Amino acid sequence: MRKFKTESKKLLDLMINSIYTNREIFLRELISNASDAVDKLYFKSLTDSKVEISKDDLAILVSFDKDARTITVSDNGIGMDKDDLDRNLGTIAHSDSLEFKSENAETQGEDIDIIGQFGVGFYSAFMVASKVKVVSRAYGADAAYSWESDGVEGYTVKEAERASHGTDVILTLKEDTDEENYDSYLSEYKLKSLIKRYSNYVRYPVQMEVEKTRELPKPEDADDDYKPEFEHYRELDTINSMIPIWKRPKSEVTQEEYNEFYKSDFHDFSDPVRTITVHAEGSFSYDALLFVPGRVPFDLYSKDYKKGLALYSSNVLIMEKCEELVPDYFNFVRGVVDSQDLTLNISRETLQHNSQLRAIAKRIEKKIKSDLADMRDTDREGYEKFFENFGRGIKYGIYSSYGMKKDELADLLLFYSAKQDKMITLDEYASAMPEGQESIFYAAGDSVERLAKMPIVSTVLDKGYDVLLCTEDVDEFCMTAMADFAVADADDPDSLTAYPLKNVAGGNLGLETEEEKEAAEAVAKENEDLFSAMKEALGDKVAKVAVSTRLSGSPVALTAEGPISLEMERVLSGAPGNDDVKSERVLEVNAEHPIFETLKAAQDAGDADKVRLYTDILYNQALLVEGMPIDDPVEYAQAVAKLMV
Length: 645
Ligand SMILES: Nc1ncnc2c1ncn2[C@@H]1O[C@H](COP(=O)(O)OP(=O)(O)OP(=O)(O)O)[C@@H](O)[C@H]1O
Fold this sequence. Notes:
- The longest helix is centred in the middle third of the chain and has 25 residues, at 354-378.
- It is built from 19 helices and 23 strands.
- A hairpin with a 7-residue loop joins strand 19 and strand 20 (496-503).
- The chain has 4 domains: 2-208, Histidine kinase-like ATPase, C-terminal domain (Heat Shock Protein 90), CATH 3.30.565.10; 257-378, 2-Layer Sandwich (Ribosomal Protein S5, domain 2), CATH 3.30.230.80; 407-503, Rossmann fold; 514-644, Heat shock protein 90, C-terminal domain (Four Helix Bundle (Hemerythrin (Met), subunit A), Up-down Bundle).
- The protein is α+β, with helices and mostly antiparallel strands and 645 residues long.
- The strands form 4 sheets. It has a 9-stranded mixed β-sheet, covered by helices on one side. It has a 6-stranded mixed β-sheet with strand order 16-15-18-17-20-19.
- Helix 7 (354-378) packs across helix 8 (380-400).
- The structure holds adenosine-5'-triphosphate.
- Adenosine-5'-triphosphate is lined by residues 29, 33-34, 37, 75, 77-78, 80, 88-89, 95-98, 116-123, 167.
- Adenosine-5'-triphosphate (ATP) binds at residues 29, 33-34, 37, 75, 77-78, 80, 88-89, 95-98, 116-123, 167.
- It is found in: Cytoplasm.
């Protein structure tokens, strides 16, 4: 027996016990090696006219024997002679494939795609096998040799039999333990699913003999109650689909094919609404194929949802969901990124340089953004549906970045326009603004219908200004984080005007004229006693009672000063631990309304009880109009009843 070199022994131990986190990748590694071996022979045939092989015959075969507990990966590639076995499999971290790749770097064209580079993949077999036997015959050699090892001390190399060139790697699986069920690999279903998951796009057919069932021909003399009979038979099937759809030029792939790929690889039953392709060439090339789903994944808003794109290197799956490739606000995007130029770490589970990922992610983000913008402009109906599904995440992206992402994302937003009765963009809002409008107005609440009826909304609309009716809990947070929206001037596209985003129920809207302001101040002064009596009646419930300049038809309205609006208070108080989140409520009183006269009269007559009762009723009414709960509905009902008798 030849012993593994000391450093190799240590490496082997490391390899088996710590490099990989996932045992099942052993099959991926062996299939990748087989694909490399086949690729090398194919390359030889291109450069050496004496090598006569047909590309169609090149294949990889996976088989298993339940009784012997073996799994075999065979290929009809270049094979190894006695020295190769010793050098390649006896020395860990020696990669002949890497040497091959660099030696032929110039000559190998697109048709060669060598995967191996570290010289360790083969040993991952020892994660599941107690013994590995390799029988190989080099192309053009007469003799075959076998290499055998238990992965502990060393290995033996002997003469062996093999009918033609190629390699068989035969793993005898370890005995099952409490933690690990190695026997589970001895199943057609399991092996097939591993091939599909990791090696689906390996360029050569990965075949397996699979069990099938077929109906026997109906005998000619069968009588009427003949029941169809079936037989089981075995047939060689190609398990992988080989040609990655993302490597094919977009012009050659039908949308139907993209849809099928999306549905089968990303387990969705509806077609994607958008298919996005990226093809980057240069010192760092990659292909990406991305999809915007047509419906919300059921777990999108759950903790378990994992964003990310599948990452392939030379057609072999590296990571099922590489999170770094998409930002949180595009977490709904599914797809694959494939690059030959990734610097992988030894386990092929991660990358050595995150800067590569960052560069891809940046480009992908831009592409998704421009594609969505295109959809917004060319397929409004589809975009509205998309926005209904995933707009929340985009708004959240603006909010959670404290508005830093607004330049990238704000023009993807849609809000409901009270004036136009449909969803519009902020740009569309701005371009429809009448002369003199200086802010973008919005109102937040739980339904469009309810918001449209709110007195302060009507007041702004009456002035000829549109109001965006926001009904999602994240809306106001998004608006607050954005603070304003910049629009290019019509005559000078380089100069931008930023319009503040204002909640109609917030502090000063700047809508009143100087005269209106002065008149309000005069009323407030004249009725100082009444306002302080009303404030006293309401106590801590409001920060102040003030004269309103923005109400026409209604006697009162509740607004809020400061950063927290009434709607934010409502949204936040739904979450535990937020009891102390309170808006600074202001009860605005319409001095033009007849009720104000009644209040004044009560105050003048010194009827403090009446002032208190009316103030309470008006405050509760304002709460109801806002869609907020009133503190004591029974007391409110009794107060109203008292007025009726
Ligand atoms: N099926 C095979 N046919 C021919 N040569 C093989 C086969 N399997 C492995 N080899 C040889 O053994 C070497 C070591 O294989 P191993 O899987 O350990 O490393 P690698 O494929 O070179 O790199 P990586 O660790 O990146 O997979 C390969 O470089 C190749 O020369």
